[in-house]
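ugh ok so i messed up the first submission bc i forgot one of the chains. this is the corrected input, ALL of the components this time, i swear. 74 residues overall. if the numbers dont match what u have on ur side tell me asap before i send this to the collaborators (the ones from the other lab, u know who)
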Amino acid sequence: MKSTREPTHTRCAISACGWCDRNGDLCRFCAGTGWWRPERPHREVNGLVVWHRVDEPCRGCAGTGKEHGSTAAS
Ligand SMILES: [Zn+2]
Ligand SMILES: [Zn+2]
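and heres the new structure output, hopefully the right one now
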């Protein structure tokens, strides 16, 4: 099974995004993969809580794998 994934987007939703125009800076959250793998709590029918690992497009770079600075953090 292939474990590495390609970025889902070549550009983010922002047109003329200066971060997307840059090359060489990999997203610090997903290391340039465009994906992050958080763990989600899931309650079983017996009340036990288990953690499921899920794949989501990286929110730090909108799935582009490119560093988008700290604009979303402020
Ligand atoms: Zn962008
Ligand atoms: Zn990212």
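quick check: Residues 18-57 form one domain. that seems consistent at least. The chain has a mean pLDDT of 87.
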